[in-house]
Amino acid sequence: MGEDLSNVFKALGHPIRRGILDILKQSPKTTGELNEYFPEVTRYAIMKHLTILEEGHLVVVRREGRYRRNFLNAVPLQEVHDRWVGKYMQTTASTLLNIRSAVNQKGGNIEKMNDFRIEQEIFIDGPRDEVFKALTERVEDWWEFRLAPKGASSQFSFDPVPGGQFVEKWGGNEGAVWGNVYFVNAPEEIRLYGHLGMQGAVNSAYTYRLLEKEGGTLLQLSHTASGMIQENWEQDHSKGWEYLLGTLLKNYVEEKEKL
């Protein structure tokens, strides 16, 4: 934890690196596109800054043909918040999805044809098998968000097989499907499609990839959505994933490993 946070603070210590994060907050960029924002800086210097941001896990890189596309990964900032701010503030958990308002919201943001892509990485100090089980078979133990009506208790189940479902149920025959499984390579990868609190003409899919790294597990999340996307949904889902995976899941697995 100490070394990870040292890299985060080092990454935030230069104005150009902070500027890069501000740009990536709006949308992912290739290295060449980022260079255009800093005409006074060489491409080589931008690449060095990106390397430092990667070491701090604040940037996630995905190769697309000849290009490398850089995505903001705000999970380490959530960890800093949890350590030095969260425990002194009695606030409602900052939800990446504020699903209740997203589902019930009327008016406000105008729907339009759009798309988004979220890429995040979280290091979890626990075996890959245990992280996979926590993501699937044990999701009931840590998944905090609910689609059930206010005042109704609900239960979760996740069947990690092709054709399986991640389901929330309440009442008699009431409930919601959070995801449908269409690919499994346990414990390395599982892919699902599901609205995750969005409604209407939306296609949404998300993937968990688990890599063994330094005695623990690097969890990579990819979430894409397209269709009638409200303008706040990308930001809400990005913050939600940070909280669900970077705080709830991470704490759940790491606390179990201490027992």
Automatic annotation (TrEMBL):
<protein>
    <submittedName>
        <fullName>ArsR family transcriptional regulator</fullName>
    </submittedName>
</protein>
<dbReference type="GO" id="GO:0003677">
    <property type="term" value="F:DNA binding"/>
</dbReference>
<dbReference type="InterPro" id="IPR036390">
    <property type="entry name" value="WH_DNA-bd_sf"/>
</dbReference>
<keyword id="KW-0238">DNA-binding</keyword>
<dbReference type="Pfam" id="PF08327">
    <property type="entry name" value="AHSA1"/>
</dbReference>
<dbReference type="InterPro" id="IPR023393">
    <property type="entry name" value="START-like_dom_sf"/>
</dbReference>
<dbReference type="InterPro" id="IPR036388">
    <property type="entry name" value="WH-like_DNA-bd_sf"/>
</dbReference>
<dbReference type="InterPro" id="IPR011991">
    <property type="entry name" value="ArsR-like_HTH"/>
</dbReference>
<dbReference type="InterPro" id="IPR013538">
    <property type="entry name" value="ASHA1/2-like_C"/>
</dbReference>
<feature type="domain" description="HTH arsR-type">
    <location>
        <begin position="7"/>
        <end position="82"/>
    </location>
</feature>
<dbReference type="InterPro" id="IPR001845">
    <property type="entry name" value="HTH_ArsR_DNA-bd_dom"/>
</dbReference>
<comment type="similarity">
    <text>Belongs to the AHA1 family.</text>
</comment>
<dbReference type="GO" id="GO:0003700">
    <property type="term" value="F:DNA-binding transcription factor activity"/>
</dbReference>
